[in-house]
Write a structure and sequence with these properties.
The complex is a heterodimer of chains A (457) and B (447). By secondary structure, chain A is of the alpha+beta class. Chain A has 17 helices and eleven strands. In chain A, strand 4 and strand 5 form a beta hairpin. Classes of the chains: A alpha+beta (457), B alpha+beta (447).
């Protein structure tokens, strides 16, 4: 129930459509309600987005936002543990939640006439969560299993976690969303109670509704259910700015695995950051698409198919984050090549972006895909609500929906080259390598042949 | 509780100007016909968005590998690597230059080629021209085969480092033995190493034929346009023959247990047996019953017993995967190694109790409300709908399958579920797979 690469959903372009009708209302208690009418099917998605996530956490408390997300299903005075999901299910809906670096969000997908079910439950747990200690003990164990499943036993995920921890010195993006194992073990229900009181309030949330609804009726319903909730004193989170990186950073991650894996990240910027021209994050988005915006772009064409140095290779970046992130490339070497070959090939791609302006045809292909994707995204009310919620939670605001594609399309080859030269420099680079260790059943000769150190059993 | 809920519902209905008669889901009208050379077509006109989802499926999944493990998947994967005058770069460039997507892959039963494109401007024309070539004139060039072979082998090694995938493969082997469903679509390393260009070409000749194809379309085109598109994309396919039905799946004769030592902090436990096929007479009792047992996300008996009461696993589930022959019934969880036996016992005890007692009336009613109330969500969106069309066409389900779905769910009784589970599931003849470390044998990270 959490996503680490929160912004990937936004790498694909945002929906702007002449037909899009977005309505906004802020209640007296500060709850912002954003409604987008979409009448293609008799369904609705309701999402409550809180501006709280792992990037708000500090030492010793990592993972608290995500554990609290789990506990939001464990009842209030009015609704016993588990009742939320049972009620949604009996109304034909599905529900779940996710925690990212910049937000925690709760959603219900329902037939359009059941929206009030979602509002009643979400309003109740916005201010009245019970947090019973016995439920906390069990749910913490569940989260610890989730961590083992998603990170500890997944060598690539483990490499990514350690990569972030090394790349960022001060920025809270260094911490995993699910939390460090030791912090989870020491977490107390009181920590959650404090965290809940600090951040779960109407003035720190956005309610997003997309579907076959009328905005005025949704606003009335929101007033009825959420209008009486009390606002909270919410102080702005510290930004914890990342100091300049004094030089390239490298880490080797040893874990039981069969194939090596490489991650390279350059510290970059994001929309709304000081010392950043407004076009720079858009230029970085286009740069990432030049590398990995489909099977016709450079990493697939030149590294996977052309030079055949990579079995797979990718690049990602998001302009839409609360704090500056990275342009990240990753990959697995193809047969006959090693991690060094792959890294050199990726470095050469970066160098080329600095040396040569990208071709107009390449840029045009990406613009065309951006515009097509705007149409495709209208096929899902859930995806549309996700975009609105993400923009709200990162403080950028949903009106960017209607500007995003134009801003991207305006980026020139010179601007792509400029951000490559400014941000993709060695001193901004962190490299992580997964060094495969033997798995149970591997023979000693096999391990020796791979040049690996035997894992401690 | 339920009283306050009902009250708020009626208020909502008033506020939204709706009635409480429930969602009158507009079931889309499915049109069907055959192309000039005999491929079955299913089409839903969806004029709201200027786009077309096109999905052509063939009875050409890994069940057709016939001793060449990985052949079906390699054939499907190679389609986009070169066709007619175009190499992989040209195909990718043609589709992406008009904002279209193209994907080809193989599962156990079916292989599919799918595309999404805009219907305006030159986009549709370029996408269809490319799609047509990919379907009927793949090159299967040796250098491309060699590259995909090596990358597939890399992918197979990555699967070996994932305990969940290792467990899933082992369970299918245990359930299916010599049956073609035993293998995994991506194949074995030995099989993939042995594949030749001739194998792929012969497989394509035999199975990528009109009689073995279903064309599914959802989009902003008219019936006349849809007919022309279906004829066009299949025109290069020979009429050929429909693939024979896969062999019957024998029931397990005895309980089976496989334990695989793995360097992991968790043990993955998977339990299964042959389940049911598409169009199975017991489909609805088994489907609704499983919804109660472990099919419904956060609300199921397994979720309650394993996660909510005991905190043993993050994810726990059960499902029937209906296929042309009996697909599997499968249940699974993951838990830290020293809890593996306890978790397995809870899983089995919950299954036995459900087979013995069936669902309570309350549980059955709740499951039906979830399935029928959520029906509009299942078919909302062209992406979901085109997959339903492909499944309906491929498995020969009745065209009114979607129209009758909720009525047939409503008609299921607790007794029917008890009866069907008792006849179809055999708790004494299950395959049980454990993949993990014996407690105390794996050092923690950092030690």
């Amino acid at each position: 129930m959490f996503r680490t690469l929160t912004a990937l959903a936004l790498l694909a372009p945002l929906a702007v459509h002449a037909a899009s009708k977005v309505h906004e209302l802020t209640l007296d208690n500060g709850l912002k309600v954003v409604v987008k009418e979409d009448r293609r099917a008799p369904v609705v998605t309701s999402q409550v987005w809180y501006r709280i996530g792992s990037s708000y956490e500090y030492g010793g408390l990592t993972g608290v936002s995500h554990v609290l997300e789990h506990m939001m299903f464990k009842g209030t005075a009015k609704h016993p543990p588990g009742e939320f999901s049972r009620i949604v299910a009996e109304n034909g809906g599905d529900d779940n939640a996710f925690t990212g670096r910049d937000y925690t969000a709760y959603y219900q997908n329902l037939a359009k006439d059941r929206l009030a079910v979602a509002f009643e439950l979400e309003a109740d747990r916005m201010r009245n969560l019970a947090l019973p200690p016995a439920e906390f003990d069990k749910e913490l164990a569940v989260v610890q299993e989730e961590r083992r499943l998603r990170t500890d036993d997944d060598p690539q995920a483990l490499t990514y976690e350690r990569f972030n921890a090394v790349a960022y010195a001060a920025s809270p993006y260094r911490n995993p969303v699910i939390g460090w194992e030791g912090d989870l073990a020491e977490l107390k229900v009181e920590d959650l109670r404090n965290w809940y009181r600090l951040w779960y309030a109407p003035n720190n949330a956005t309610l997003v509704v997309v579907g076959d609804v009328d905005a005025p009726a949704v606003f009335d319903l929101a007033r009825k259910h959420f209008g009486t909730l009390k606002a909270e004193q919410v102080s702005a989170a510290k930004r914890r700015p990342e100091p300049p990186q004094p030089g390239e950073q490298r880490i080797r991650v040893k874990a039981p695995a069969k194939e090596p894996y490489l991650i390279m990240g350059y510290k970059a910027t994001a929309l709304g950051q000081p010392d950043t021209e407004e076009w720079e994050p858009y230029a970085l988005e286009m740069l990432a698409s030049i590398l990995d915006g489909g099977s016709s772009t450079r990493l697939s064409r030149e590294l996977v198919r052309g030079a055949q140095v990579a079995a797979e290779a990718g690049a990602s970046y998001s302009a839409f984050t609360r704090l500056p992130g990275m342009l990240v490339m990753d990959g697995t070497p193809a047969k006959g090549h090693d991690i060094g070959d792959l890294e050199r090939a990726l470095q050469a791609q970066i160098q080329r972006l600095k040396d040569e302006p990208v071709g107009e045809a390449e840029l045009e292909r990406i613009r065309t895909q951006l515009i097509a994707n705007k149409v495709y995204e209208l096929d899902s009310v859930y995806a549309q609500a996700m975009q609105i919620g993400t923009l709200e939670a990162t403080g950028l605001g949903w009106p960017l929906l209607d500007e995003y594609v134009d801003r991207l399309s305006a980026i020139t080859p010179a601007q792509v080259q400029a951000v490559a030269r400014k941000y993709l420099i060695d001193d901004n680079l962190t490299v992580a390598v997964l060094d495969p260790q033997p798995l149970a059943g591997d023979t000693a000769t096999h391990a020796a042949k791979a040049g690996a150190v035997p894992h401690v059993r | 509780m339920s009283v306050s809920l009902r009250r708020s519902l009626s208020v909502a209905a008033l506020a939204l100007g709706l009635t409480l008669t429930g969602p009158a889901a507009a079931i889309p009208e499915i049109q069907t016909w055959e192309t000039a050379n005999g491929a079955k077509v299913l089409f839903v006109e969806a004029p709201d968005l200027p786009m077309l989802d096109l999905r052509v499926v063939f009875d050409a999944g890994s069940a057709r590998d016939a001793g060449h493990s990985g052949l079906a998947a390699m054939t499907a994967n190679m389609l986009t690597q070169g066709a007619g005058d175009w190499d992989a770069d040209a195909i990718a460039e043609r589709m992406e230059s008009v904002g279209a997507s193209l994907e080809a892959s193989a599962l156990r039963d079916m292989a599919f080629v799918a595309s999404r494109s805009l219907t305006r401007g030159p986009a549709l024309e370029t996408a269809l021209a490319t799609f047509t070539k990919v379907l009927s004139e793949p090159r299967f060039a040796d250098p491309d085969l060699e590259r995909l072979r090596q990358n597939t082998l890399t992918g197979l090694r990555q699967e070996e480092q994932d305990p969940g995938t290792v467990a899933q493969k082992a369970l299918y082997r245990e359930i299916y033995g010599d049956h073609p469903y035993a293998g995994t679509p991506n194949g074995t390393p030995e099989g993939v190493i042995a594949l030749t260009r001739d194998d792929l070409a012969a497989f394509h000749r035999q199975y990528y034929v009109a009689s073995n194809a279903v064309v599914a379309m959802v989009g902003a085109i008219t019936r006349a346009q849809a007919e022309a598109i279906a004829n066009r994309v299949t025109a290069g396919l020979p009429i050929g023959e429909r693939a024979a039905a896969p062999p019957e799946v024998p029931a397990l004769a005895a309980a089976k247990a496989e334990r695989i030592d793995f360097t992991s902090s968790q043990t993955h436990i998977l339990i299964g047996q042959p389940g049911m096929r598409r169009g199975d007479p017991d489909y609805f009792p088994l489907y609704v019953g499983n919804h109660v047992l472990g099919g419904n996300g956060l609300v199921s008996l397994l979720m309650e017993e394993v996660r909510e009461k005991r905190g043993l696993s993050y994810s726990v589930y059960s499902y029937f995967l209906p296929m042309r022959a009996d697909g599997p019934f499968l249940m699974g969880l993951q838990t830290k190694n020293d809890q593996a036996d306890q978790a397995r016992d809870v899983l089995l005890a919950t299954l036995r109790a459900f087979i013995d007692a069936g669902p309570s009336e309350k549980e059955l009613t709740a499951a039906k409300k979830n399935i029928t109330g959520g029906f509009p969500l299942r078919i909302a969106g062209n992406a979901k709908l085109v997959q339903y069309l492909a499944v309906i066409g491929f498995y020969g389900l009745p065209l009114d399958y979607l129209d009758r779905f909720t009525d047939r769910v409503e008609a299921v009784t607790a007794e029917q579920i008890r009866d069907a589970f008792a006849r179809r599931l055999h708790p004494d003849r299950l395959a049980v797979v454990n993949v993990g470390a014996r407690p105390g044998t794996v050092a923690k990270q950092g030690d």
